[in-house]
Amino acid sequence: MFSMEVQRMILFAALALVLVMLWQSWVEFRAQHAPGAAAVAPNTEPAPGSGSAAAEDIPDAPALPAAAPAEDGAPTPVDAPAPAAARLINITTDLVRAQIDPNGGDLVRVELLRHPVSVDAPDTPFVLMHRDAPKMFVAQSGLIGVGREYPNHAVEYSAAQFEYDLGTRDQLEAVLDWRAPDGAVYKKIFRFTRDSYRIEIDFQIDNRSARPWDGFVYGQLKQTRVEQPGSMGFLGRLPSYHGAAVYTAEDKYDKVSYDDMLEETLALSTASGWVSMMQHYFVAAWLPRGADSYQFYSGVGGDAANRQYRIGYKTAQPLRLAPGESGVIRTALFAGPKEQAQLREQQADGLLLTVDYGWLTPIADPLFWLLDKIHGMVHNWGWSIVLLTLLVKAVFYPLSAASYRSMAKMRKLTPRLKTLKERHGNDKQKFQQEMMKLYKSEKVNPAGGCLPILVQIPVFIALYWVLLESVELRQAGFMLWLKDLSIPDPYFVLPLIMGASMLAQHFLNPAPVDPLQKKIMMAMPVVFTVFFLWFPAGLVLYWVVNNLLSIAQQYHITRKYQAI
Fold this sequence. Notes:
Helix content is 35%, strand content 25%. The chain contains eleven helices and 19 strands.
């Protein structure tokens, strides 16, 4: 059985833990919403070094099986210099505006039309991928092999059309052509679909050469480093991860940080999976398809001042075509927000894990599912948070009631505890003994108000991550002045209400006997109010509703026991 002082110190430690977590997330939030951090101005000229790749950017072809015709074992060199800048191919769908560079067939820009930079700039889409100096994030793909030239991302394609608009169609195709010196003819086809962030990419091969054709497909993401705040220490994760991640059938989900790529080259063989580059609300992921096995790899290029990090995959078995035969190799890229409905449609195992709820994912996933179902009925994320808070509070009502009953009993004993404190002065051992006798005679469990709250803390933290990580709440409005629940309340109304509610709870709780503890507990509402001034309104809304419900429940139970 814990003493009242121990109980309060446990609660204080739990609150301090939450406060540390909130502080780290506040740092992350401010970094991401710094002026100019989100928007990237359009640019049709390639940044230095980001056009068609040098030979070192192209992955080596896997070894051909012994049955393959004997050929030169070295990868085909890439001619230098790279082709001059060409006119970009512009593609517009209902969800994205994209650009493809015929020099290499790279996807060099993706703008998300339904995800503006901010509520105040609704006509300026968020730019997920770009190659604008000094930052760069592009998707590259091609075919590789040995003994001939292949259409990798260093060749210069030709294009018959440079402007595409989905319009009323369900699908559009952008076609690039390339003819190899040996006579083989290639088409690289980008396929965009309505209401989808998935881009299908087909490589059509017409082997018009005089010898058999063997080739592998690869896809890679290349990005300069995105700076991020420090780690969460013993919590073991970052408020929002920026970097690479892979998923394999054998080892499941794993993050590959920028530092990991610098220290060691990734080399994995797997039967299935995907590779990706992630940031807070968005992800780009290559989704291999059509082969029995794959090799995942990473690499780092550029100089120390402008390192370019690559994560990619290549097929482990070649496609073989006889002279005069044709064939197709397919791959796919997802580039968009981490909307869970969209991620599920990709039918890629583990892709939902890019919505990073951390170590409390088993609790956070059901909470988001419930929040999403509520939103499907009320069509307002603010009211969805309010209703979810009511449901969570209802589930924990028995525990909360037990906690408040214990606090009410403790409150009735406060005058007698003060008398014991005065009587025994500085004799802490005697005071503890007499206090425990009092608890025993009055049948009061001092831990009764503490343990139920501790049980609820993992649920609170899980819900915290749901509200912080879910892109569905980005720029979601509530009512009146609250136009975006993912940014702070512009007039600080919710944080002030939250602080007032914490203060009301303080006065409903039994006063600590120890003067220092009393000062600490009195300061907590002020400290939390200051922190919450800059926190996303959705998180503060949850806390406000939870506190108001707790006050009503606690007030009712306290009055009931005071009347006894």
